[in-house]
Write a structure and sequence with these properties.
By secondary structure, this protein is mainly beta. The protein is about 5% helix and about 45% strand. Strand 22 and strand 23 form a beta hairpin.
């Protein structure tokens, strides 16, 4: 009953506070976009840990990173946390490499009933030079430093990470976290080609059941894909949104997943300019989610939350007391299951 009631209401939000330019632990916040409270509520950190990043939100669970105790080349480990129940499950640390860069994703697949954490790591490797044509740097006599990338998967409820080989070449080390979880697949925005001097942005997915990468057809809008866009989930569909020229912000929906012909331009409006923050950042909103009344919730400059009414073509800034100055916003559906109990659910 609790789940059904929440599913039929406006989505809640989890906010992760950014502490730029100061590095250190950050605060989590909860926002009920439909409730009578106009305040933003702080969420206690799990197990008195110092949260450093919000990896993802899925089915009422959060995947959080926090500092490891003791010296390590990896600055953090992971927790799966239900902020409503208050319990957490620790994810064992993955293998550590020399001078590594890493990105995590977190999601659930309805067919397998499993939560999984995906890790893509780029790292240096010292090897003996056997091919003079090898693309290497820092050559020192017979040895050189080369760069490798690895995909690792952790199924929540198990004890070990599993290696899945190298990621697709489009997923370079500048990659950010996945932007959307749709149909049990995580989705990244990546450069998949060049259109003259401009990069062409495409969509790379990782299917959590079979654990394979795939390139998803991108929207049929050349101006959009050559300028870059952001991904989200709207009404259960994969969405791509971005600025197509100086005066239009378009939102596309893939009505039938994986079918290129099902992309439809759902909304198009002039960019809104909320007050505060650098003007060039205010032009590029991030789509957060769809509201029950048909409005679209947007975030500007990692600070302002704005609802867009496509019928009246109106914008309204959400006024919430206690909103942090800079934050990441994610849709969140609260759950009464404990984190430990949820690991054993099989749908």
């Amino acid at each position: 009953m609790f789940h059904n009631r929440l599913s039929d209401s406006n989505p809640c939000l989890i906010l992760f506070e950014y502490n730029f330019p100061v590095c250190g632990p950050s605060q989590l916040y909860f926002v009920d976009s439909e409730g009578c409270s106009r305040r933003v509520r702080k969420i206690d950190s799990p197990q008195h840990s110092e949260v450093t990043n919000l990896v993802g939100s899925c089915n009422g669970l959060l995947c959080l990173s926090f500092p490891l105790i003791g010296g390590s080349s990896v600055p953090h480990s992971l927790l799966i946390y239900n902020p409503f129940v208050g319990d957490a499950v620790r994810v064992p640390p993955a293998n550590r490499f020399l001078n590594q860069l890493e990105v995590f994703g977190f999601g659930f697949h309805p067919r397998t009933g499993q939560f999984k954490v995906v890790r893509i790591v780029w790292h240096k490797k010292i090897m003996k030079v056997v091919d003079p044509a090898l693309d290497v740097e820092d050559v020192d006599e017979e040895f050189a430093t080369v760069y490798e990338s690895t995909v690792q998967v952790f199924t929540v409820g198990t004890t070990e990470w599993r290696n899945k080989g190298a990621p697709p070449p489009q997923l370079a080390d500048e990659l950010g976290p996945p932007e959307a979880l749709v149909e049990g697949s995580l989705h990244w925005l990546a450069v998949v080609g060049m259109g003259g001097v401009d990069p062409i942005f495409g969509i790379i997915s990782f299917e959590l059941a079979d654990e394979v990468f795939e390139e998803i057809p991108r929207p049929p809008c050349q101006r959009l894909v050559s300028r870059g866009y952001n991904l989200s989930v709207l009404n259960g569909c994969l969405s791509a949104a971005g600025l197509v020229d100086a005066v239009h912000f378009d939102i596309w929906l893939m009505k039938q997943y994986r079918f290129k012909e099902s992309w439809e331009k759902q909304f198009s409006f002039d960019p809104y300019f909320p007050s505060g923050g650098p003007s060039f950042l205010r032009r590029f909103p991030k789509v957060i989610c769809a509201m029950k009344n048909g409005e679209i919730l947007l975030q500007y400059n990692y600070s302002a939350l704005v609802s867009y009414d496509p019928v009246g073509n109106r914008f309204k800034t959400l006024q919430k007391s206690g909103l942090p100055n800079s934050f990441q916003a994610l849709p969140f559906l609260p759950s009464l299951f404990s984190a430990k109990a949820t690991m054993n659910l099989q749908l």
